[in-house]
Amino acid sequence: MGSSGSALRVCADHSGGINWLSLSPDGQRLLTGSEDGTARLWSTADGQCCALLQGHESYVTFCQLEDEAAFTCSADCTIRRWDVRTGQCLQVYRGHTSIVNRILVANDQLFSSSYDRTARAWTVDKGQESKTFRGHRNCVLTLAYSAPQDLPSDPCLEAAMGGGLLVTGSTDDTAKVWQVASGCCHQTLRGHTGAVLCLALDVSSHTAFTGSTDATVRAWDILSGEQLRVFREHQGSVICLELTDRLLYTGSADRTVKCWLADTGERVRTFPAHRHGVSALKYHAGTLFTGSGDACARAFDAQSGVLQRVFRGHTFVINCLQDPSSQGRTSAGLPPVLTAEACAARPSLLRKWDFLQKSCRIGRLCATRSLLKNSNTRHSKCSSVIFWFHFGGLLACHSCALIPGLGHHLPFWLRRGLIN
Q1: d(CA 177, CA 145)
Q2: Cα distance between residue 188 and residue 172, in whole Å
């Protein structure tokens, strides 16, 4: 068994569950999106809430933090862009007709997926919808983008590929590849017999990896649409995956993570020790972090599979992990670990744990709560951000709920997409 991580501080100020979080490229700020309809910016250095982003009329489903702007999407069918310095809303993107599940900012474009069965592309600055990608027969969940410079230079394909390729995964059991410039479907990737929950893109080989409720991962050539290989050893839904150094890590409802050779489909090792489904994973500097329905985050040696550390303190499933590009250090010279969760409503407390002295200082956060007027909003959870001390990097997590009939936990945006 691995040793336990020690909490440095707890930042609790959202009045609803945290649905997603995002670290800035420099690792200095954290953005959280909540069921309470707000997003918050936090300093990763001291855990202080820097800005409260208010304006959505329903819960925030996903968020992405860039250097100069924060992006959020919501069940109110809109996307918003915010000034990270002032917290002011700079732009509202309107066009979706149902819950916006996910957003992706890439190549000076904004992409979104929705329960309205479409994905859309937007101009970031003007907020105008530039393309609508129609063709999925059910909720569009996950997104990945391949920029034009990552695609083969073929004069015959130059016009079609000029805007890059967008890959989408859906609960209609398919993934689709779209020509961003024209909005046309380039390929439909058929083979899964269950919802496509997660997606990773290897831009160098033009290969997409999709994980599904059918317990398989499949590799596809996004240019030809050919299915290249199938990874079959999981015994439950594949909820999350990550590709790094030609190795594919997959987390499943079967309570394991598996490591595969991406180019051949050969399984290299299995990471057990989880008591519930593995809902999130992140590789960082030789360490594999996992989040599970047992409310624990874990750190494994990625090469040997040895469990190094268990992070306890959350009360709900962890389904988001992040590591920063910065190298923030604690007093011991090691990077802290960050986690976020959803728990019962309580006063907003800041907890900072000293790893060496094992002491705790508690202080109240100074930020205004904002409750939704939407009667459909759920406040059965509260949200906190926990900074963990770990040698492997910064870790960030949050909570979700159980899907009836599936027997495992998934992020809310998968939960919404799988229940009609």
Answers
A1: 9
A2: 11
The residue ranges of every structural domain in the chain are 3-356+382-418
3-state secondary structure of 291: strand
Tell me how crowded residue 356 is: count the other CB atoms within 10 A of its CB: 10
Tokens matching residue 390: 């770990």
- Whether this prediction's pTM lies above 0.90 is answered by no
Question: How high is the pLDDT of residue 382?
Answer: 44
- Torsion over CA: 275, 214, 179, 206 (sign): positive
Q: Looking at domain 3-356+382-418, which of 2.30.30.30, 3.40.50.1100, 2.130.10.10, 3.40.1190.20 is its CATH number?
A: 2.130.10.10
> Average pLDDT of 171-197?
97
* Structural contact between residues 356 and 336, judged by C-beta atoms closer than 8 angstroms: no
Contact status, residue 304 vs residue 360, Cβ threshold 8 Å:
no
DSSP string covering 241-281, please?
Answer: EEEETTEEEEEETTS-EEEEETTT--EEEEE---SS-EEEE
Summarised one tens digit per residue, pLDDT across range 401-416 is 333 333 333 455 444 4
What is the rounded distance in angstroms from the CA atom of residue 188 to the CA atom of residue 227?
A: 11
CA nearest to 33, candidates 47, 19, 23, 43: 19
Residues 339-361 pLDDT 10s: 555 433 332 222 222 222 323 33
Distance, in Å, from the CA atom of 221 to the CA atom of 210, rounded to the nearest integer, reads 11
Within 10 angstroms of residue 293's Cβ, the number of other Cβ atoms is 25
Nearest to 111 by CA among 67, 164, 60: 164
